[in-house]
Amino acid sequence: MHAASREALAALDKHLDTALFGIDNGVAVAAQAGAEIFDVVEVLDADRALRVAVADSSAEASQRSGLMSAVFGGKVSDFTAGILTFAAAQTWSTPREMRAGLVACGRRAMLRSAEHQGQLGQVESELFQLSRILDKQPQLTQLLSDRTATPAAKRDLLAKVLYGKVTAVTEALALQAIGRPERNPIDDMASLADTVAALQGRQVASVVAASALNAGQVQALEEKLGRIYGRAMSIHTEVDPSLLGGMVIRVGDEVIDGSTSGKLERMRTVMA
């Protein structure tokens, strides 16, 4: 995002959090707001004239907010309407970045709902595990990546896979992302997990080990990586026996390969 849009999104995040603070029935209000904001983004995606008009920085903020209210007032809750008019009053660099900001706001609302229920850690884990499942199921991933399929068809397919297996918030976030992809299904789910971790002040470390790690090993690794990177870490693990021993750790774009197979490969390279 450009600077103006980053400032607008920061203001929108703060406005949402303030509006939700201490509200009665915060779980339901936040979840409804997230779902309704996602629906509004779908409308803006389909209506070029409208999405340009509500993000037109040459118009007065009151005009943009008034237009947003006129179009969506009565179609969403009063709480969501307040979020939308506030968003329209901000200065966004482009209509595309405004829509990206609304998506981020909708996700934040959903995650605040999960937070109220004490489910943030579970949502983070479920989204990460979903990214790993998709990585190991190329046929499913290909279907979800099919550009000729409608967003509704892809969401229906993923909904059948997720039904009864994840929290409502995880399902809502995953279905929104799969119908409006940013990169590919695997990376988009992993990115959502990163977003949940960031909301908790943590950074994700993806750990692939030759054998399953116990709770003590995970905690020790969490503390060690925390000291290295200077922040709290969320450890997500998976098992790959082909590593023979040790583990491979990925934090952002950085990879630490301490696996036996990795060491053998480096030895073969040196001796070649």
TrEMBL record:
User: Entry's InterPro entries?
Assistant: ATP_synth_OSCP/delta_N_sf (IPR026015), ATPase_OSCP/d_CS (IPR020781), ATPase_OSCP/dsu (IPR000711)
GO cellular component: a single term: proton-transporting ATP synthase complex
Please give, as recorded in its UniProt entry, the membrane topology of this protein.
Peripheral membrane protein
For this protein, the record's Pfam families field holds: OSCP
What molecular function terms (GO) are annotated for this protein?
hydrolase activity; proton-transporting ATP synthase activity, rotational mechanism
- Does Ion transport show up as a keyword for this record? yes
Q: Which UniProt keywords apply?
A: ATP synthesis, Cell membrane, CF(1), Hydrogen ion transport, Hydrolase, Ion transport, Membrane, Transport
Its annotated compartments are:
Cell membrane; Membrane
Primary site of residence: membrane
Asked if the keyword Transport belongs to this entry, the reply reads yes
Q: Which family does it belong to?
A: Belongs to the ATPase delta chain family.
Q: What does this protein do?
A: F(1)F(0) ATP synthase produces ATP from ADP in the presence of a proton or sodium gradient. F-type ATPases consist of two structural domains, F(1) containing the extramembraneous catalytic core and F(0) containing the membrane proton channel, linked together by a central stalk and a peripheral stalk. During catalysis, ATP synthesis in the catalytic domain of F(1) is coupled via a rotary mechanism of the central stalk subunits to proton translocation. This protein is part of the stalk that links CF(0) to CF(1). It either transmits conformational changes from CF(0) to CF(1) or is implicated in proton conduction.
Question: What's this protein's name?
Answer: ATP synthase subunit delta
